[in-house]
Amino acid sequence: MAAKRLAVLIVLVLLSASGWAQINDVALTVGRTFISTQTVRSTGLPVHFGNEETVQFNYGRLLLARRLFSITAELPIAISPRADVNYYFGTTPKDIGSIFITPSARVNIFPTESVTPWVSLGGGYGHFRTASSTLYNGVNPGSSSNTAALQIGIGLDVWPWERWGARVEARDFYSGVPNLNVETNRSRQHNFYVGVGVIHRF
């Protein structure tokens, strides 16, 4: 009798652990960030940004699950080490880097299916790093800066296995502008990220 009770207890614990294991997910995607062009007010000339190579980490925790949809609290962290900055007069920083950390809510459609589209919305913190030199190797008088950021995203998760899957996503980190040493026509900018990678739930 004791052995049977122990067996039942072990089964219950395993089932509980299995259910618990499905409420977390982590994802790693890589791609590029596209920053909208800006125009310098005094000259009418554009400031172009290179398409940044970006890595994004994401942790999610399931809050609510229904048959047709689920709600997950997630933490996207997008890191872009370097994007070239091009301006005719060369007074802008040679390049910039950025990081965005934006706690968000993600809604998945048909979360129990092998293919589940989703949308995400949130906001948080952004930081722009500026190079120490300007485009033509002068000393950059500007400095790095912080900004508030709004995150809007859409994506698709595909689960060929129970715990491992693939993710395709597009997110817009709508933020303030970096310190470019020139006054442009924008006080905020779109940082469009498109990436693909892997996702694991546990």
Attribute tags:
single chain; 202 residues; mainly beta; Porin; eleven-stranded antiparallel sheet; 1 helix; 11 strands; elongated
Written account of the structure:
By secondary structure, the protein is mostly beta strands. It has a single domain, classed as Porin (Beta Barrel). Helices cover 10% and strands 59% of the residues. It is built from 1 helix and 11 strands. The chain has one helix spanning 2-21; strands at residues 24-35, 38-39, 46-49, 52-65, 69-86, 95-101, 104-109, 115-130, 145-158, 164-176, 188-201. Strands 1, 2, 3, 4, 5, 6, 7, 8, 9, 10 and 11 form an 11-stranded antiparallel sheet that branches. Strand 7 (104-109) and strand 8 form a beta hairpin. The radius of gyration is 22 Å and the shape is elongated.
Structure, briefly:
The protein has 202 residues and is mainly β. The protein has one helix spanning 2-21; strands spanning 24-35, 38-39, 46-49, 52-65, 69-86, 95-101, 104-109, 115-130, 145-158, 164-176, 188-201.
Structural class: mainly beta
Uncertain parts: 6-21
Globally, the shape reads elongated
Task: Say how many strands there are.
Answer: 11
Helical content class = under 10%
Total of DSSP H or I helical runs spanning 4+ residues = 1
Total tally of structural domains: 1
Query: So, CATH architecture?
Result: Beta Barrel
> In angstroms, what separates the terminal alpha carbons?
33 Å
**What Rg, in angstroms, do the CA atoms define?**
22 Å
Average pLDDT works out at 91
CATH topology name, in short, is Porin
Order of helices and strands: HEEEEEEEEEEE
